[in-house]
Design goal:
single chain, alpha+beta, four-stranded mixed sheet, 2 helices
């Protein structure tokens, strides 16, 4: 059983949440959290190692959420 790497581009939209896109995905995947996003992509694809590539917006939102948890 081999596992392929799947690089996935991720951005963030305040109204929709995290949005992932990749040529291997039939359509963009949307989720409220990065964990949910990863689970949805893994459910669509078989035997893949999902590599989330966050753009500036997604990275800022991830840091903002981490800072809120640290309070």
């Amino acid at each position: 059983m081999s596992t392929d790497e799947l690089p996935v581009n991720v951005t963030f939209d305040a109204e929709r949440g995290y949005i992932a896109s990749a040529p291997a995905l039939p359509q963009p995947v949307v989720a409220l959290s990065l964990g949910g996003l990863r689970r949805r992509i893994e459910a669509l694809m078989v035997d893949v190692d999902v590599q989330l590539l966050l753009d500036g917006r997604a990275e800022r939102e991830r840091r903002r959420r981490q800072a809120q948890l640290a309070r």
